[in-house]
């Protein structure tokens, strides 16, 4: 019984390491963090995404200028996921949604799946092969960002596509004064 429990815990740790690797990719794309992006891939990894087929470094150098030119905000959201581990190789299927706030104020949304072969080398799980399967795409109506007109909203930091984004701040601390807005029935 203890051996089964230990094996299950080992598997959970492997799964968590793989999920952390896949999450690094998404965060890196949204924050334009090249170092973080490359940390999700082995040096000899191959990526096939839309018209692009090549190395992780070349993919980053191709994708970031396209996102910089087209959108001023993006979110690469990871959803349902299956991961099959066989020794030091794993295959993952991860559903995703991509949302981009375009520079022309439109919103583009797409969804699909990342199909990844990951390999554990020198104790670290990284992507060795990635295919991006795009399954749908569409435009969303544009609405103002909620609460964007509050005078102190930026005190905690504003979204940025680099390491000045508040998510990199350590320790994370609130810089706004306490306030409880009126509820609709109080207004």
TrEMBL record:
Residues 160-178 have a biased composition (Basic and acidic residues). Residues 11-130 form the SnoaL-like domain. Gene3D superfamilies: 3.10.450.50. Residues 156-187 are annotated as: Disordered. It holds the Pfam family SnoaL_4. This is Nuclear transport factor 2 family protein. It comes from Stakelama tenebrarum.
